[in-house]
Structures are given as structure tokens and as C-alpha cells.
């Protein structure tokens, strides 16, 4: 993963989303539905100015891996991807969908989401908790560490 430069920030923002059709129907076993869904996901991403790294399907779910989504909330992205794809797929492929007996909605109510970074959460936690001591040069480290390890959240005199 590479970091990206934006007008006022520098970093990375990757997101994994997974959507499931209503009643966990295996609608993506139909290649035409898969193809149309993938194309719509790409259109939505382009409209939002984000990039899709991957779109893959199981028979009863779709995974989307996106990057540069920092300007949007996860719920907004899920709403846009699910809403637009549901509308377009139902409009274009209503005959193909009839055999899956989905009712009034294409997608189940929920979704899975996971933010993804270049390091694990444990590694980042370690860095924040332990590796910032370098900024306290000239400080009595033994006293600092004894306060830090005692669970106190404040610093006292360091002489």
C-alpha cells in the first residue's frame, strides 16, 4: 500500500466493504448480474472520486476494496454503493432477478466494513504507547517511565 498526497493531508485510506443480497440468495451465480453489479460499483466510485482496488463475488455476496475514501463516512459509502446498484440492477435485469424471489429489495439491511492499513492495530498501538519517548529527550526517563507504568496520566517534575 502506498501513501497518497492530498491538498491538506498525506496518508492512506483503504476500506473493505461486503454486501449480501436479501435472504442470502445466490444471485451472483448469474454472470450477467455479476457483470452489471461490478460495472455499477465502478461508476459509483468514479462519481465519488474514489478508487476501486478490487471487486469480487461469492455466489451470495460481493466484496469491494476501495482507496482514497477519506472524505466520506462508511455508512454514506455503503448507502451509495447499495442504493445505486440495487436501482440499476433491478431496472436492467428484472427478469433475471425474478427467479431469486427477493421481494422489494436487492440487498439485506446490513453490511460488513473494515478499515485497512499498512500495519496491524497492535503495531500502531505499540508505536503510540512506547515509541514516543524519543520526544522527551533531556527528561529523567526513569522517573517518566515509573509514572507512565503506574497508570497515572500526568507528568510531574522531571528533575
Model description:
The protein folds into two domains: 8-116, Alpha-Beta Plaits, CATH 3.30.70; 132-159, no CATH class. The protein has five helices and six strands. It has helices spanning 31-48, 74-92, 94-98, 121-130, 141-149, and strands at 4-5, 10-11, 14-19, 51-58, 61-67, 112-116. The strands form two sheets. A four-stranded antiparallel beta sheet has the order 4-5-3-6, with helices on one face. A two-stranded antiparallel sheet has the order 1-2. The radius of gyration is 23 Å and the shape is elongated.
Keywords:
159 residues, alpha+beta, 2 domains, four-stranded antiparallel β-sheet, 6 strands, 38% helix, elongated, disordered C terminus
Distance between the termini: 44 Å
Query: In the CATH scheme, what's the topology name of the largest domain?
Result: Alpha-Beta Plaits
In which order are the strands of the major sheet placed?
4-5-3-6
Question: How many helical elements?
Answer: 5
Structural class: alpha+beta
Mean pLDDT: 83
The gross shape turns out to be: elongated
Q: Per DSSP, what share of the residues sits in E-state strands of 2 or more residues?
A: 15-25%
Number of strands: 6
Helix fraction, binned, reads: 25-40%
Question: What is the domain total for the residues?
Answer: 2
CATH C-level name of the largest domain: Alpha Beta
Largest sheet: 4 strands, antiparallel
Q: What's the CATH architecture name of the largest domain?
A: 2-Layer Sandwich
**Could you spell the SSE succession in H and E letters?**
EEEHEEHHEHH
Low-confidence spans: pLDDT under 50, at least 5 residues? 152-159
The multimeric state of the shown protein is: single chain
| CATH homologous group name of the largest domain | Transposase IS200-like
Overall radius of gyration: 23 Å
